[in-house]
Design goal:
Number of domains: 2
Shape: globular
CATH superfamily of the largest domain: Nitrogenase molybdenum iron protein domain
Helix content: 25-40%
Strand order of the largest sheet: 2-1-3-4
Number of helices: 10
CATH topology of the largest domain: Rossmann fold
CATH class of the largest domain: Alpha Beta
CATH architecture of the largest domain: 3-Layer(aba) Sandwich
């Protein structure tokens, strides 16, 4: 199905993930982003002069390094944040503790809450951020790029074989993703079905055993939040010789970062799935 650019609220409605309406910012907006992928989006929207703060994990683009850091995504220095004089702080349901977002809001700073659950949600996400900060034209360009990549992926992946995949995000304890996550939806676009779903926990702990591995065609070791690398694949092969060869590294930024990076993510996951299928 071709993705419609009208996904989400009407284009004139700037409504965030918790239903809050945001008026377009006045000139002189000062933005702190607590979401690495959205820091990158702000740069790609041409809003570099408005970005006054970021997290230490906001690594893209390279120019983000010149923006003052207020801490990590889970814990920030509120005094440092206030000193930057932001008018807006961008947060995310998965990445920002609710208590932190509420504490920021109590200071009178406008908090924009994001929570994309599907790849298609990038349309409304980019529209929201571009609309609030006066970058609608550039947002429309980025949306067009994303829609073309999304539609091309859907067409190209239509004949891919269905595969059951275990996507690992952490070890000690082992953790995976449930089906209601953004990551799981991106994998679904290439007909990869995630294992280890929980009805109550979006990022559940699992016991890595022959039982769950028997059900998996692939075991994907993500590059973040745990930095899985080639040595972990070798450890897996030694620990589970029956399943040697199922393990693959996957660039988590390409399948878990939304915003402008998601466009490249569509091409990345298609190329990865094609390479495994051949």
């Amino acid at each position: 199905m071709v993705l419609a650019t009208g996904h989400g609220p009407p284009s004139g409605e700037l409504i965030d993930a918790v239903g809050v309406f945001h008026s377009p910012a006045t000139e002189g907006a000062r933005i702190v982003s607590l979401v690495p992928s959205l820091t990158e989006l702000l740069f790609d929207l041409g809003l570099v002069d408005a970005i006054v703060g970021r997290t230490s994990y906001c690594s893209h683009p390279a120019a983000a390094a010149s923006v003052p850091s207020v801490g990590g995504t889970k814990k920030i220095n509120l005094e440092k944040l206030r000193a930057l004089g932001p008018t807006h702080v961008i947060v995310n349901v998965d990445e920002t503790p609710k208590s932190l977002a509420e504490e920021v809001a109590r200071t009178g700073i406008q908090v924009i809450v994001t929570h994309p659950l599907k790849a298609a949600d990038n349309v409304q996400l980019i529209r929201l951020i571009g609309g609030v900060f006066g970058a609608r034209d550039r947002a429309d360009e980025l949306i067009g790029d994303f829609v073309r990549a999304y539609d091309a992926l859907e067409r190209g992946a239509a004949e891919f074989p269905v595969r059951r995949v275990l996507y690992l995000i952490w070890k000690e304890p082992w953790m995976t993703v449930s089906r209601d996550t953004y990551i799981s939806d991106v994998l679904r676009l290439v007909r990869w079905r995630t294992l280890g779903h929980s009805e109550t926990v979006r990022y559940p702990e699992i016991a890595l055993s022959d039982g769950i591995l028997d059900a998996a065609d692939l075991v994907l070791f993500s590059s973040e939040p745990f930095p899985f690398a080639a040595n972990h694949l070798r450890e897996f092969d030694r620990a589970f010789p029956r399943h040697a060869g199922k393990a693959r590294l996957i660039d988590a930024e390409m399948v878990s970062w939304y915003g402008s990076r998601a466009t490249r993510g569509m091409d990345y996951i298609r190329d990865l799935a094609e390479g495994i299928s051949t």
